[in-house]
Amino acid sequence: MELKEKAKVVITVASLVAVTILFVTEYRRRRQRRKQTSSLSSCYLHSELKPQFGFKRVLADNSYSEFKHLKLVDASSSSLEKPSNGHPYETEITVLLENPQIEFGFLRGECSLEMSDSYVWVETESQLKELAEILAKEQVFAVDTEQHSLRSFLGFTALIQISTHEEDFLVDTIALHDVMSILRPVFSDPNICKVFHGADNDVIWLQRDFHIYVVNMFDTAKACEVLSKPQRSLAYLLETVCGVATNKLLQREDWRQRPLSEEMVRYARTDAHYLLYIADSLTTELKQLATDSSSPDDRFHFLLEASRRSNMTCLQLYTKETEDFPGSAASSSIIYRHLNGHGDKSNISLNAEELVRKLCAWRDLMGRIHDESTRYVLSDQAIVGLSCKQPTTTEEIYDTIAHIDLATESSPSLSSSVQSPYPVICSHLDDIYKMILDKLAKLDDLLPVVLKKCLGTNGTCPISVFNYSLLVNFKTKLSSHSAPKQNGHKNFKQQFTRKASRELFVKKFSCKAPVYHNCRIYANDGRLLCYCDKRKLEWYLNRGLAKLVEENPPAIMLLFEPKGRPEDEGNDFYIQTKRNICVGCGEGKHYLRYRIIPSCYRVHFPEHLKSHRSHDIVLLCVDCHEVAHAAAERYKKQIATEFGIPLFVRRVLDSKEAQGTSSLVEDESTGDSEDAGVSPLHLRSAAMALLRHGNRMPSSRREELLQTVKMYYGGRDLSEEDLEKALLIGLSPHERRKLERKKGVSFKHSAEVAGMDKQEDENNDGEALADFEKIMTVERSTVVDDSGDGTSEGDGAKELNDTQCNGNTLHQQNSKLSLLGHGPHGKQIVEYLLREHGEDGVRDFCQRWRKVFVDAVHPRHLPGGWNVSHSGRRDFGEFSVYNPTKRLSTE
Q1: Where is this region: Disordered (predicted)?
Q2: Is 1.10.150.80 the CATH classification of the domain at 328-494?
Q3: Whole-model pTM above 0.70?
């Protein structure tokens, strides 16, 4: 009995303790939530001191203004010719690309692979100056950086590791942020080699934070590329070359903390300490590979190639990402991925999508004001949850965000000490509450209201070097991209319709997979020939013309001597990796192929001046595509005027039925040429209407349309078969097949459609663009010479084909050119250029189009080696995919 009594007492006490704990926990949670949701007048930054707020000056603030690069004070004339925001050391880097400096060793004497415990922690200005003096005496030193991005909008460099032959230095860039320019001279000295591994990000981070530009670099990752190493990571090199294991998970640690843990210090030192030894080992392999080469002239080729690729990285320039409207890219991505994930948009209200846009814009602005990453402010999953559930109280908003972040485990690992929702949300819950209840202004007016509340005269948030500029240029940013305010409801509807159409077009026509695979083709002596896609690699492998030398990413080595080498063209474009982003603005979420030289001209170029050469095919986002296409259409007008060749064929005649009329078409002096024939568009429209509705339309209208068709057939009586043939006039084979599939059109008599040539025309991208132009209501230029004579007083094509003068033509039934587009115009332009100026005329013509593209788009992300003056010449080897002889034999 006593045992039972004791058990009851224990159970009772345990129950009371459990209930008490639950009660206290719930009480504290509610108290904390009331405290967080009620204290909206104060920002958490008043009590939390972020390390970067000690910076007195930042080069890349959180405003919408573009980043300004260093401008060197130079009285020479050459400096005046550089772009206003170009690379300040472009001349020095170009010299290194042409004459690499590699006649030195990365090591001096014996080198021990054991890393001692001694290192120098640099945290004062005097120590930094001493370091600069030490480095100025070196021929080479190794560099690595550690970044922090979670608690910063743009991110910043938290630590720089520098290693010489004798010592390791860890530079506290948080303490020394404002004086880091002390190291600029040694980093830009072309006589000192800086060794990095995978420096693509390090280069632009140093520019962004300190205006430090790297000149003369050896990148061990680029050396791995040249050597075709199975892996290129630093961890792989440390293990295989030095026998050292490293924990790369430490890269994600919070490098702002001071002091650093012993484990973090060792990791940071390891990344730079062994780089000189690794670089020396790799250069030995490169020289040995060159020595084994069949040609003695190529002895240093592989080392030169690694050096050249390394220094190409130095030419990169940091740019801020830009958007049409704050948060627009994120909102479009969220709506596409989450709300339209199943392809069913019927259950998604307009209000929910508009709230997503508001929350993304608000999140973007909050990140800029508080210098926090957007993922730290509010997760994508939380935005979706708030937009769909639309909680009605601040407590429900708080709980919704907390539960979603907990369920999806989206909370960043670095913030494990801070429970979700994060401080930004807790300090500004009222903003989200008002957005959900639609009490805040519409999207265009939302951000100025929030900005004034946070940073205004009585603002709740502290002003810092990161957000001060927002007050200066925020109004300019919005005024240049917002919708007009007059007739607000209509304009908002038009704006939303345009956004929806844009998203639809992106979803339908943008590339569904990466365009550039960056596969490599090597010559049989190991020299890199080009980067290409997987299909081209498979072509060589399937025919036994190459062997696979690397699988990820794929690389092959040719088993025969290729006809040409990259240096034969004097251009490095084809031996550069290419990024799958818009070359204009850097957009990476969607992109389309864009032909810089329009297809209506390029299709008629000689084979060796086109043959799938990718130099003039670039990737553009929808917005940059619009700009480039509009500029191209305007320039086509100028071309048409300059050469006296109209863009469109204005009239067509049936050559069999109108022999007596054809003389009028050929004779420019009669003045009657404009009365002969009929517009191909009017002819098709009339034939279509007669076939579909001829028996039901008023007799007067039917007679009017019949007269239009008769003008093509020379005035004779028409049969139904004639109408069917008229419907096909001027169409390319592709357009004819497309018409055949269209509803409401049937061909009872004409067998011509079924027997059409199955070859697709080359201008598929143009059709997609035409659809887009209709959706986006972009002004499309139409060029018709209304003067009646079709001639130009300038230097033009004065000797035209006599069946195509004045934009008129005797229709050729088997033509593969569409008369409804610019095909005939392009063909005549190219024929004239080849006849009068030869291939040099075509090359000059291409350069003109590249200049039009550059002037219109101002591309900041073109691949290395892209050049307006690119020659485009190509010779074909015996086994080339594009050898004209092989093409003819396969056809």
Answers
A1: 784-810
A2: yes
A3: no
